[in-house]
Fold:
Amino acid sequence: MRILLASSEVYPYSKSGGLADMVAALGKFLARAGHDVGLVTPLYRGIRERFRLLQPFRYRLEVPLGHATVSATLWTTAAPDGLRLYFVDQPAFFQRRGLYGEDDVAYADNAARFIFLSKAVAHLARHLTPPPEVVHVHDWHVGLVPLLIRDAAVRGGWREAPGTCLTIHNLAYQGVYPRAIYEATNLPWSYFTHEGLEFHGHVSLLKAGVAYADALTAVSPQYAQEIQTPEQGCGLDGLLRARAGRLSGILNGVDYEEWRTRNNPSLVHGYDLADPDGKAANKAALQHELGLPARPEVPLFGIVSRLVDQKGIDIELTALTELLASDIQVAVLGAGQPEFEEGFLRLADLHPEKVGVRLGYNHGLAHRIEAGSDFFLMPSKFEPCGLNQMYSLRYGTIPVVRATGGLDDSVIDIREDPARANGIKFHEYSSAALAKAIRKALALHGDPELVAHYRFNGMTADFSWDRTAAEYVAVYERIRRAAREAVPGATR
Ligand code: ADP
Ligand code: GLC
Structure:
């Protein structure tokens, strides 16, 4: 099948979180399964310098953006498995220090930047020969694409218009902007309705996708249910319930070629189930890297996270403040809201021999924390899927998670299934409930046989992408079938 993916970030070219990992792996495993897969993404600062094999792609975009016309060139490269990347080169929009903002302040023109990106995706889809059969977009940045394609089919006479799929990685980010920005879409006002992309008098770029995509997916089965409730629907639960027949939950996979404990350039020592000793060596190396005493016996808790409300950092800081009276160590890597960054720095100041903190983005250290920790903390308020807990499982690091979204779908608590237990779960969103879960981890740490049982279950759990990619192909097939039925005599 011919599939065009679109995302604002793609690992290893750009990344702020799990979206980049997920989209890169989806593209790779679809291509490996024999599909013809393209992926459109912005050319951010530094990509051309880091990836010398990028070639100019002979197509110049000229896109109306309100009263202006914005042009862009494209760059392309083929990834090893045959995935073809298209980078949209619009320097004024994308050659900047950050992806979405700087110093925790969003760029003022993000609406224009991502409406433009969405238009670039729709234009490229129309230009490619043969054209894609399905265009699959991810999150709000490209949420407008399904509507742009629908409009081009209805008003623009695009007879071969592809079917569309929107994956919701995080409903909390919707791309909601004042009504005036609608001009930049150059669409008729007939779409600016309650059934369309209007959201309480504003424009919602994600809602355009939710309302007009042929298929909707969320990144875990549980999250697909949660977003249909008023508590977690972020104002779109009604529309999502109305479109429930087109919505499915597909748990993300893990790219075990990237997230591996052997021959991993980010790790000093390799290890696996058959040869587990390297895990202790990684712990010692991590303690050394973070300036913590090299004590093999002390339980070490890892945190790698965007430091934002979603991730439960408030209850984490409170619970750790209490638990740092015990003999534990904590390794923190993250960036985000200043109050959370300062909160961790304060803990490190108070307990320099127990807490090591690194602020900022550091890919290698993320692997080393996953490998060197005994436990991994993820007390998220909500978590659409979560990849870190699945990386932890493979790295033999026991996840301590709140039972929400994909965390609940991927981690097994001893109360659910003693034979298959691989992590510790708690339910109530409170620092007391988290502190209790951490105390359970400390008790578990004192029982090496039980730790070995959890580790075995975690390291053998299988979240490989073949299953996930096959589930997406089934969604694409449904879109294609529906399109054929809608247009009698059509061949695609
Ligand atoms: P989310 O996408 O909501 O941030 P996920 O668990 O799905 O959460 O994915 C997070 C990804 O981002 C993981 O690959 C994790 O290692 C990475 N990550 C998060 N913060 C950092 C950081 N400060 N440095 C390096 N990698 C990070
Ligand atoms: C979002 C979600 C996270 C998910 C990731 C990849 O960033 O917050 O839970 O794992 O997307 O789908």
User: Anything to note?
Assistant: The two ends are 10 Å apart (CA to CA). The chain has two domains: 2-253+466-486, 277-461. Residues 488-492 have pLDDT under 50 and may be disordered. The pocket of adenosine-5'-diphosphate (ligand 1) is lined by residues 17-19, 21, 304-306, 333-335, 361-363, 366, 385-388 (CB under 6 Å).
